[in-house]
Write a structure and sequence with these properties.
elongated; mainly alpha
């Protein structure tokens, strides 16, 4: 750790050599390390330095953790687990609400689309009748008229100007 309490980056070669020293490497990788040790003096020097560090660490007296340390560690671990569980539960709840809202919105959109589609399909035949309504209202007059010119003169005179109710 540095002065700020942050972990220093680990050299990949050191990590590989420590794993070799601990016997954690698969046989193929261990053979590759041994080849490098045979060919590269720098790698051999680094391995020797790491071996000395490990030996020095082994010479340090081992101390058993106190009851207070164990209790604090277990308490902190329980608090972290409880916070993570609460966070996971809140996230799951909000995801569930999101899915319900999405499903409800989709259902509402489908209902509106279905209603509008059905309404336009059922209203299609009536649209032509609404367009023809002015003619149908004066159908009797048109039948008694002798010619189209007579009807056009009546139109020009303003006899066919009444408004059609759109609510029909």
């Amino acid at each position: 750790m540095n002065d700020d309490g942050q972990m220093l980056p680990v050299d990949p070669l050191d990590a590989l050599l420590v794993a070799y020293l601990d016997g954690e490497l698969p046989s193929q990788e261990a053979e590759q390390v041994e080849r490098r040790l045979a060919q590269e003096p720098l790698v051999r020097q680094r391995l020797t330095a790491l071996e000395k560090s490990v030996e020095l660490l082994r010479l340090l007296p081992r101390s058993a953790p106190t009851q207070a340390f164990t209790q604090v560690t277990v308490t902190l671990a329980a608090e972290v687990a409880e916070r993570e569980l609460g966070l996971r539960q809140r996230r799951t709840r909000s995801q569930r609400i999101g899915w319900w809202l999405l499903g409800g919105g989709t259902a509402a959109a489908a209902l509106v689309f279905g209603y509008l589609t059905t309404w336009s399909y059922l209203e299609a035949p009536n649209a032509q009748l609404r367009r023809d309504l002015p003619v149908l209202q004066h159908l009797d007059e048109y039948r008694t008229a002798d010619s189209l010119e007579f009807i056009q003169r009546l139109e020009q005179a303003g006899l066919f100007t009444e408004e059609v109710d759109d609510a029909l």
